[in-house]
Design goal:
Elements: E1 3-11, E2 15-16, E3 23-34, E4 39-47, E5 55-58, E6 60-65, E7 68-79, E8 84-93, E9 96-100, E10 107-110
Antiparallel strand pairs: 1-3, 2-3, 3-7, 4-5, 4-8, 6-7, 8-9, 8-10
């Protein structure tokens, strides 16, 4: 059976236009899938507005080791004020979808 686990979260370098209050922000997640070759798609599902809307970022397979796979996905956005983003990760295999949403509490990123 496919298992999905968030393995890392890292900020992306920020950016923006000089003189503008808008700032580019983002983060990258690592997702561990076990056993290997069980998932054919991994995605980061995130929201900037408390799940009133959702956004998706497809994952890329980055490593195969120790009987599992590591996938990575990135989320980025432009903000003018600090914002809290909630997110979860999903792996899709031949037996269906498996989510890691922090035990039902979702993961959180504050920009």
């Amino acid at each position: 059976m496919l298992t999905v686990r968030l393995s890392s979260t890292q900020p992306l370098p920020g950016g923006g236009t000089p003189g503008s209050s808008a700032v580019q922000r983002g983060f990258r997640v690592g997702v561990e899938i076990r056993p290997y070759f069980e998932a054919y798609r991994v995605a980061l599902v995130w929201t900037p507005d408390g799940w009133q809307s959702t956004r998706y970022a497809s994952g890329q397979l980055t490593q195969i080791a120790n009987g599992g796979e590591i996938w990575s996905a990135e989320a980025s956005w432009v903000v003018t004020q600090p914002t809290t983003f909630f997110y979860a990760v999903v792996g899709v295999g031949f037996d269906g979808q498996v989510w890691d949403n922090n035990g039902g509490w979702n993961y959180r990123w504050v920009s």
